[in-house]
Amino acid sequence: MGECGFLLELCNWIMKMDDFNILDNDNVKLKTNYIIAVTMLAVGVLMLVSIKTNMAYVFIAAGILLLYVATAKRNDREKELSKIRDMNAFRAELERAIKFYGLGLMITEGYAIVVRPSLKVYAFDGMAKFEVGIAEGKEKVLFLTDNTGCRHKIARTVTGDGNQSDFDDAYRIVKNKFAS
């Protein structure tokens, strides 16, 4: 069972590499994910054929899972980036973005960009308001509400996770976006 835990941690770590580099034109992260997935599949098949161990199934399953997750993340990334009207202006904004690593959030002049668990890009000009939800004094969630009334979670923190001050900073920045 230790090997399975290690493989799952490896897959999780690989998927989190460099989350904030959303415009990586070389798709280094994606290529790395595919190379590792194919390698895991090949090792699993070789183990199955040569030494006939049950561990081969773990490698094959992990390789298939990583291929699936990488492909889904690529499709989601392309869908979100296609929402951006002016990519050159967006690139310039990203260079000046305020990054909240613990929250998985970037805030630019015109966008809130959530990078975890998957990429979501929200234009402030398409949002009607922002809201903060507080649950039992232990959890705080920052939402953007679009013009149709749909709420989008952009940041979350719980007591003791070390992200309280980042959450408060993100709240102040978003609040200023809606002040005018």
Brief sketch in words of this structure:
By secondary structure, the protein is of the alpha+beta class. The chain has 5 helices and 7 strands; from the N terminus they run ααααβββββββα.
Question: How does this model look, in words?
Answer:
The protein has 180 residues and is an alpha+beta fold. 49% of the residues lie in helices and 22% in strands. The chain is built from 5 helices and 7 strands, in the order ααααβββββββα. The protein has helices at residues 2-16, 28-50, 55-81, 87-95, 164-177, and strands at 98-100, 105-107, 111-114, 120-123, 127-135, 139-146, 151-158. A 4-stranded antiparallel beta sheet has the order 1-2-3-4, sandwiched between helices. A 3-stranded antiparallel beta sheet has the order 5-6-7, with helices on one face. β6 and β7 form a beta hairpin. The longest helix is centred in the middle third of the chain and has 27 residues, at 55-81. The model has no long low-confidence stretch (mean pLDDT 85).
Sequence-ordered SSE layout with sheet pairings:
Layout: H1 2-16, H2 28-50, H3 55-81, H4 87-95, E1 98-100, E2 105-107, E3 111-114, E4 120-123, E5 127-135, E6 139-146, E7 151-158, H5 164-177
Antiparallel strand pairs: 1-2, 2-3, 3-4, 5-6, 6-7
Helix pairs in contact: 1-3, 2-3
